[in-house]
Write the structure tokens for this entry.
Amino acid sequence: MNIHESDKASVPNENRFQTTQWSMILHAADPDSSESQAALATLCEAYWFPLYAYARRRTDNEHMAQDLTQGFFVYLLEKQSFSKPSLERGRFRSFLLTAFKNFMANEWNKANSKKRGGDQTLISLDFDDGETRFQIQPAISMNPDKAFDRQWVLTALDRVLNQLRQELSDRGQSNAFEELKSTLTEQGSDSLYVSVAQKLDITPNAAKQTAYRLRLRYQQLFRSEISRTVEDQSEIDPEIHRLLDALSE
Amino acid sequence: MNEPSVCSQCRSTVPQDAPNGLCPRCLVLVGLGPQAPEDSANQATVDIDTTANTEFHSLQNLESVFPNLEFIELLGRGGMGVVYKAKQKELGRIVAVKILSPEVRGKPAFTDRFEREAKAMAKLNHPNIVTIHEFGKRDSLYYLLMEFVDGPNLRQFMQRERLSPTEALKIVPQICDALQYAHNTGVIHRDIKPENMLIDSRGNIKIADFGLSKLMRQEEIDLSLTGDHQVMGTPLYMAPEQMHQTKSVDHRADLYSLGVVFYELLTGEMPVGRFDPPSQKSGIDSRLDEIILKTLEGQPERRYQNASEIKTDIELISASTANASTANANKEHNDQAVTKATDALFSRRLTWILAAMWMIWATLIILGQAAYLMKFEWYFDKQDFLYKMLAWGMGITTTWLAFFFLQWWYVLAKPKNEPRSLQGFFTLCQTPDPRHLRMWGFIIPGVIGASAIGLSASYWGNDIVQTVTMSLIFLAAPILAAMACVWTYGFPSPSDHDSHSSSD
């Protein structure tokens, strides 16, 4: 998965006037400007897989799902059909799903009939990888909408963890990530820290400190990732709660 | 396929596609944690043991700490802590459990302070205050067991829908009641803001977290923590004396915060800097301005001294406006007066333009007739020409009439203070009104009748009469229409028209 340089630079401070990526797109004076388009493309590139998974569940057909997903992003990004004043406020996640559903219902037939061949999109979609990932999803049948939300969370978490790993690896501490990642979710026991300390050649206390800092950094990155897709900072917590719901069985 | 593993923290199944093999639920819960300062290196001096008291608590963990409770779900989190929905097993009653943020644990003195504040909170028993059933400390967790309110907080409510002033005026007196009661008991809230007000399913307001703010802020001062700004509370709602701490803070600080909330309810904005009086921003009675401005006085001595006074003043005004306005079904739309006068269809300017166009057209017709009389050669076929003119004339006249008349009717029929809007017009159209009958009953026949007269006259009339006839035709229709309007509605008086819509 690509880590965009811009991601690292855009970790927001707790500044209530900081605009989120999504709000920047929503409120852009010129929706067709290249910054808007580029920002939208970045978001789409990050979260295309939940959409693919959704299409996959709806159509139950690998090729059709690929065509739909590909076609949708062409429609969204290149045909500049984005600048609609009736765009609902809200989160990027719901916007994307709604737009996709509309696309499936209305636009795709039109687009399909023109027999496009090999449209190149602004973003790269690795469908092979996508299909593999789709296959390892739990086999339980799930409402596609819910599956979409669930996949969204997992995608976001994946991105954040990868970012975290990348940061540590840049500092030459990639082992630390692997050893300590379990402490993100579980209280580490003393024996854990002792064994980790041995492996990393540091003291157990230092291991604890590193774990603590890892967790803090994870929180920052997580919130910043969520903030990219909501309209303003106050929306972050509610969005996280929604995502938590999506994970419940 | 591997057997799915179970997360030891939250007991949910860890799915195959879990990121990095970690439990996604736990990851999200951890991610929810408070904003950490940018430079985490500073945290190295903080006691590492705080990692043991993580910001989240899995439901299973909680159930082991509170065996008599069945935890249902996480309701939300605020600066003070996390709130869960739970059920008391023996009583079968749904409650809310607030677990205070572990950051404020600190010295043993906290326990005493907590007890004192919680006791004061628990004494409060009022329909508009969230009741505290129980409080205590278990397993190093400080908790409060409270009444569960089935509904959103005021902030969420305000975000979902724009409240009408009437609705806002129903909410504020309830808050006044609650505050007066609490102040009488000696408890000051200190953190009145929309997030702390809950609305239940019956539309009643319940205020939560009385006194909690004081407890937490004291802790903050003690621990000299600069990290968690959420504990500070929103400065926007704080009274000046609270913010600057120049004088001792008393119950009047709550009244100030109430004023801010009131203003925000009515206008959707915060009263910062040089702010507009609320009556300018929403269509409310201007006497309410005085009330709000008085609660927002910087000096506590100049504010209202009691919440009950605020309530009384509000009620006086509400009562008098209720009597004054007519029982108009669209009264609520007064309150939601929406648009700027960019609704070109219904601006006076358009009326004038259309009237001018009509006049020009009618003048051309008359001139054309005069020219015909002088027998200009390029009038080949008299009748053809006439008929065409008639058709155009009738068309334009009728259209103009429609606009003119509909505007006139709308302006007369709509509620007086409401600015003109397309929305308002359509709403008004939907209300059954017997005056419509007279309108459609006379205008349309009037127009059609005039057309009939016109056509006949042009077919049989001779030249001289022609001019007069044509002129009359074009004047007859609007004259008839005007007569019918006057008969139906009376003459429009100057006061019926909006004198303040300057954008026309």
